[in-house]
Amino acid sequence: MRRRSCACQESTGSVAERETGCADSGAADDARDDAVDVAGRLRLPPVLDCRRVRSRAARAGVAVAALAIAVAAGGCDAGPPPPTPPIVPGSSAAPREVNIVMKDWVFLPDPVDIVPGETVLLHVINGGLEIHEAVIGDQAVQDAWEAAEGQAANPPPGPTPIVSVPPGTAGIRIVAASGQRIDVVWTVPADPAVVGALVLGCHIPGHWARGMRASLRIASSRG
């Protein structure tokens, strides 16, 4: 603190006046000294360099844009799914487990790999919000179910109409409600030409038209 200087030390005025003047002057000096101490201890926030901030933001924007372009290019160049490694065909005593997940307007995986003549245990899971079905058969089977279920769309009040097709075009049909899983044992036809024509489709009214279909692919086998 600075040394006090009191102008009232002069001989003029009474003793009481001198004491009062000195007290007031001392209080003012203390206030100024305290202000100086506070100001000395006060740390102002650093000043941002706006040019450096803009430069960093620009570099970050360029990096994000480059990453987005790379991802988009990779997706465009993905092409068909890679071939499945050789699998051990299932048998009647030990069926090979195959998962088919139905979502709203899509089957996963697509394609579904199978081996001619093998026996599989299909786990058909409806992961969508609506009822779905998995119909396995050639194009004639798909057309038959599309026509039959289309006629049953928007039924009048009453019992749910029964939908059926001629036995020769029935194929395999598995209907599952939302969140439901149904297991079915299926022996794949032994003729590769027949297997190559198989399609997986959903013919709940409107679903086939939305593109809810997938292919079945012949996979190489081992063992």
Please provide a written account of the structure.
There is one protein chain. The chain is an alpha+beta fold. The chain folds into three domains: 7-41; 50-79; 96-218, Cupredoxins -  blue copper proteins (Immunoglobulin-like, Sandwich). Helices cover 32% and strands 22% of the residues. The protein contains four helices and nine strands, in the order ααβββββαββαββ. The chain has helices spanning 15-41, 50-76, 139-151, 192-196; strands at 96-103, 106-108, 112-114, 119-126, 132-137, 172-176, 181-187, 199-201, 213-218. The strands form two sheets. The chain has a five-stranded mixed sheet with strand order 3-9-8-5-6. It has a four-stranded mixed sheet with strand order 2-1-4-7, with no helix packed on it. The chain is globular and about 55 Å long.
Keywords, please?
223 residues; alpha+beta; Immunoglobulin-like; five-stranded mixed beta sheet; 32% helix; disordered N terminus
Q: How is the secondary structure organized here?
A:
Layout: H1 15-41, H2 50-76, E1 96-103, E2 106-108, E3 112-114, E4 119-126, E5 132-137, H3 139-151, E6 172-176, E7 181-187, H4 192-196, E8 199-201, E9 213-218
Parallel strand pairs: 1-4, 3-9
Antiparallel strand pairs: 1-2, 4-7, 5-6, 5-8, 8-9
